[in-house]
Each structure stands twice: as C-alpha cells, then as structure tokens.
Design goal:
The complex is a heterodimer of chains A (112) and B (113). Chain A has 112 residues and is mainly β. Helix content of chain A is 0%, strand content 48%. Chain A contains no helices and eleven strands. In chain A, the strands form three sheets. Chain A has a five-stranded mixed sheet with strand order 1-11-8-3-4, with no helix packed on it. A four-stranded antiparallel sheet of chain A has the order 2-7-6-5, with no helix packed on it. A two-stranded antiparallel ribbon of chain A has the order 9-10. In chain B, strands 2, 4, 5, 6, 9, 10 and 11 form a seven-stranded mixed sheet that branches. Classes of the chains: A mainly beta (112), B mainly beta (113).
Chain lengths: 112, 113
C-alpha cells in the first residue's frame, strides 16, 4: 500500500506558485520523500527528493515538516506545461534495496 | 538526468501471441529495474522488481508465468507478456535505479486485439 495521501486535484493560475501537499504520517526515520510527475501518456519524471531538510532544485522546492509527517512540493512559477499528475512517494525498503509504490497522486491543472 | 529507454513505444498484437518489451538504462548501470502497468486515468501499479542475475520478485496478484522478466545485463531488462489477451492491453512502464533515485522510461502502450 502507498504510504502517502494527497488531494485528488488542484488548480493553479499560470505564473503563480503551486503548492502541492502530501501526508506521510507513518514515514520511518530513514525513509526519503520523493516527488514525481506524469504528463499524459508519458513515463513519470523525477522532480525532487528529501529526507528531513528542505530541498530546492531547478524545478521545485520541497518543504518537509519538522516531524516529517507531511511535506509540500512548491512549483514557484507554474506554467501551462506543469499540468500533470504529481505523485508523492515514500519508498518501501527491501532487503538490499527498495521498491516504489505509487498512490493516486494529485492532478494539477494550471490555467491561463 | 539519467535516461531510461523502452522499446517499442507502442505495439499492437493478436490475442494469443507473445510480446517482448525492452527497458534499457542508457548512461548508467542498473542492478535493479522495476516494471509497472498503468490503466487509463489510474496510478502506476508495480508488477515486479527485476534484479540483474537473479529471479525477479513479483508483487502479489501478478502472474509470473504470464509476465516473464529477464534482467540479463546491467543495462537491459525485458518483460514478455505471454499468450496476450485483450485484458493485458495497458501502458507498461519500466524504471531503473541509479543510486538512490529511480528513473522512468517513456512507457510502452500495448493493445491486444
């Protein structure tokens, strides 16, 4: 089972910041939070990941609460091309590795 | 970022035939690859974890004799859908692990007539 919950859909105006929340209240101390997005009919695209510190890259920022039970992905200036399904993922550890279980994700609509 | 390719991108086959889908990591070696399937407007469902040089680990409910996985090298994993039926029509996506990050292929759309 996916270990995260996200709102099913969100709207955002073009040029504004898109803030996508994610709850992961059962996260373990050594588990990372990953964000991917999937544009229609394509494979998922890696966005960002973090453990407990906030992270920023050229695509987005990731804000993780101090108790690590939730996080927010921020797209600072959303464009129409950011319309996609965004998945927040906590990986499930395996012996010698991990597996990634996808939840339902958040469908983000960026509107002009 | 790391690149993962899939071939073919789409395939149409007759019911009862077998279809092979290839997944390649183009600029890194991947000891672990994953196979997912996705139905329209649904999330990705993990089918199996493929480990180079050993048998794949299948998720509960996935028939290992139906979906044959071979991870013969550090850059190639194949998924063969055997005796395909219309209900096997789906979007199949592979991914490869590069360190702590997982990168996804563009997907293969399978249509079984």
């Amino acid at each position: 089972d996916a270990k995260t919950t996200q709102p099913p859909s969100m709207d955002c105006a073009e040029g504004r910041a898109a803030n996508l929340p994610c709850n992961h209240s059962t996260i373990s101390g050594n588990e990372y939070v990953y964000w991917y997005r999937q544009i229609h009919s394509q494979g998922p695209q890696y966005i960002i990941h973090g453990l407990k510190n906030n992270e920023t890259n050229e695509m987005a920022s990731l804000i993780i609460t101090e108790d690590r039970k939730s996080s927010t992905l921020i797209l600072p200036h959303a464009t129409l091309r950011d319309t996609a399904v965004y998945y927040c993922i906590v990986r499930v550890a395996l012996a010698g590795g991990f597996k990634t279980i996808f939840g339902a994700g958040t469908r983000l609509f960026v509107k002009a | 970022g790391a690149v993962v390719s899939q071939h073919p991108s789409r395939v149409i086959c007759k019911s009862g035939t077998s279809v092979k889908i290839e997944c390649r990591s183009l600029d890194f070696q991947a000891t672990t690859m994953f196979w997912y399937r996705q139905f329209p407007k649904k999330s990705l469902m993990l089918m199996a974890t493929s480990n180079e040089g050993s048998k794949a680990t299948y998720e509960q409910g996935v028939e290992k004799d139906k979906f044959l996985i071979n991870h013969a090298s550090l850059t190639l994993s194949t998924l063969t859908v055997t005796s395909a039926h219309p209900e096997d029509s789906s979007f199949y996506i592979c991914s490869a692990r590069n360190g702590e990050t997982q990168y996804f292929g563009p997907g293969t759309r399978l249509l079984v007539l």
